[in-house]
Amino acid sequence: MIVTIDGPAGSGKSTAAKLLAEKLGFFHLDTGAIYRSIAYIAKKKGILWDNEEGVADIAGSLDIDFRVENGTRKVYANGEDVTELIRLPEISTGSSDVAKLKKVREALVDVQRRFAESRNIVAEGRDMGTVIFPYADIKFYLDASIEIRAKRRQLELRLKGIEADFDKVLEDARKRDLQDSKRDVAPLRMAEDAILINTDNIGIDEMVELLYAEVKKRWK
Ligand code: DC
């Protein structure tokens, strides 16, 4: 079974996808972590984020692995533990830059689909329901106001010991939204057959229950 969750940054989709996957016993595919890892590797190699050929080469040869170690989810890219490194604000910007590139997205289609071979997954990203898994069994689209999303991002950074100015976080969120939804290839948009959930006023437990109930309706 394939469950997709798309939505903008801060919509709650990462937390929802993680908890829903745990509750269902499904594999959690965090595709944002793939774009983030590519941006991280490019930076490390000195390849500019707008160098389409150079970044596509990285995407084409990327070895990405999601593991659980002592109960903690880890992301390995080309053998390196990048779990924390890919969450830095600078890499957020870079991931949105590399995600615009057609050749990069093309190189990643099969990489992402392979994760769904012979297992149940909850796939999280921007184009899961529209491009990567248009035939998914159930699609969700999570959304929230930009202020709430920026607040969540600021809190997330604070928990990591990074004190960020709210206006700056808001501005970054606005820019990234614009870039993610206005790009030519696979822009962020809701699939026609997705279930839309606004997460402004619901807590995480309620949200997960809601998603779980919808999945259960279809999964016997
Ligand atoms: O979900 P996230 O913030 O970790 O995603 C990082 C960036 O990657 C985001 O700016 C958009 C991009 N992305 C994408 O274009 N398509 C996906 N399926 C997942 C992420």
Protein architecture, described:
- With 220 residues, the protein is of the alpha/beta class.
- α3 runs parallel beside α5 (102-114).
- It has nine helices and eight strands.
- Strands 2-6-1-7-8 form a five-stranded parallel sheet.
- The radius of gyration is 16 Å and the shape is globular.
- The protein has helices spanning 13-24, 31-45, 52-60, 89-98, 102-114, 128-132, 146-159, 166-182, 204-218; strands at 2-6, 27-30, 64-69, 72-77, 80-81, 121-125, 138-143, 195-198.
- The structure holds 2'-deoxycytidine-5'-monophosphate (DC).
Notable characteristics:
single chain; 220 residues; alpha/beta; Rossmann fold; 5-stranded parallel β-sheet; 3-stranded antiparallel β-sheet; 50% helix; globular; binds 2'-deoxycytidine-5'-monophosphate
